[in-house]
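User: Could you go from structure to sequence for me? I need the amino acid at each position, not a summary. Structure tokens:
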């Protein structure tokens, strides 16, 4: 088993029993969790059982009781996620601190406790101190920062070596770029490339250009085409496929944002008095794109951008279901594109209504 967690190669026999994740890049904690679940899901076996806890609702005593009790499950691994949202929740009671310290000194096998702190953890808090005092091999304290490109590349080389493949730094950088710097997507791209080149040992730039980049471009254009037509059902089918392939909500949102930016650019050029043919030639758009530029007013386009920015903030700063949020946005966009009443995506019909 191998994979990448925030740019680092991971192996099952090296995993600590508990993680304390903190930092301003909240989206990376979700990426970490997704990557860990993927790394612990072997072919043909049930993925790890995941349970979430809010210490404001469930006392640490109860959380640790669950951690100590092995459940009846076909999954060999269990992930217990504790979401620490409020600063005061980092200050455990004396008895709770003692129980946590005792658990970290003798954790349950194949159970990983993952404590996610919103923002930076206070080193003076009893929560942080309990992790800092635990046996080094039992815990990992990680600040959520974008992985260093060199570390991500080193991790990618380790994955390739495990697959019996090699690639120079230029090839690895191209793969990382194609995955938008996402650790887990990079690992997925490496697996695809290894299968694509077959018995060939070295992966070359031409292999990446032939397989990965056209696929990425096609994903973007499939969503663009659906949005140009205002076809909500088609747009939802596209993102269903993207999520099934492991795309993070942030990446799907980026594709939607890229489409709206194209509309903004076209409207801006037209407003400056540029010839329509010149503008649309520059944008390399299809007839549906031209129709979309005309159909959506500058005011509605501004509203769409505001709603997408709000969705981006919610996805990065809370545990909201990013997929549901984006489905709702696409339904809202579809109504605007069709010239229907512009209502908030959070009101009115459900995310899958509206053509």
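Assistant: Here is the amino acid at each position, in order:
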């Amino acid at each position: 088993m191998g994979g990448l967690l925030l740019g680092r190669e991971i192996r099952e026999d090296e995993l600590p029993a508990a993680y304390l994740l903190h930092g301003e890049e909240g989206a990376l904690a979700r990426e970490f969790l997704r990557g860990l679940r993927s790394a612990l899901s072997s072919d043909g076996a049930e993925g790890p059982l995941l349970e979430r806890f809010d210490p404001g609702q469930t006392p640490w005593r109860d959380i640790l009781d669950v951690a100590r009790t092995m459940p009846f499950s076909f999954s060999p691994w269990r992930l217990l996620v504790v979401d620490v949202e409020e600063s005061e929740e980092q200050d455990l009671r004396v008895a709770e601190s003692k129980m946590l310290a005792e658990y970290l000194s003798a954790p349950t096998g194949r159970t990983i406790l993952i404590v996610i702190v919103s923002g930076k953890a206070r080193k003076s808090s009893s929560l942080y101190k309990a992790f800092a005092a635990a046996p080094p091999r039992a815990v990992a304290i990680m600040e959520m920062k974008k992985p260093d490109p060199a570390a991500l590349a080193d991790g990618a080389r380790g994955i390739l070596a495990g697959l019996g493949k090699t690639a120079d730094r230029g090839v690895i950088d191209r793969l990382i770029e194609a995955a938008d710097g996402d650790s887990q997507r990079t690992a997925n791209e490496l697996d695809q490339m290894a299968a694509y080149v077959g018995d060939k040992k070295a992966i070359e730039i031409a292999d990446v250009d032939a397989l990965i980049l056209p696929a990425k471009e096609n994903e973007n254009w499939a969503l663009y085409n659906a949005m140009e037509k205002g076809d909500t059902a088609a747009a939802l089918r596209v993102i269903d496929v993207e999520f099934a392939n492991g795309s993070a909500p942030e990446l799907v949102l980026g594709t939607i944002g890229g489409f709206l930016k194209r509309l903004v650019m076209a409207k801006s050029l037209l407003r400056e008095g540029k010839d329509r043919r010149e503008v649309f030639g520059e944008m390399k758009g299809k007839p549906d794109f031209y129709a979309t530029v005309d159909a959506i007013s500058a005011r509605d386009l501004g509203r769409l951008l505001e709603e997408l920015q709000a969705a981006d903030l919610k996805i990065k700063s809370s545990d909201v279901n990013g997929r549901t949020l984006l489905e709702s946005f696409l339904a809202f966009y579809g109504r605007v594109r069709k010239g229907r009443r512009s209502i908030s995506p959070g009101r009115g019909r459900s995310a899958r209504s509206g053509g």
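One structural detail worth keeping in mind: The first strand starts at residue 3 and ends at 5.
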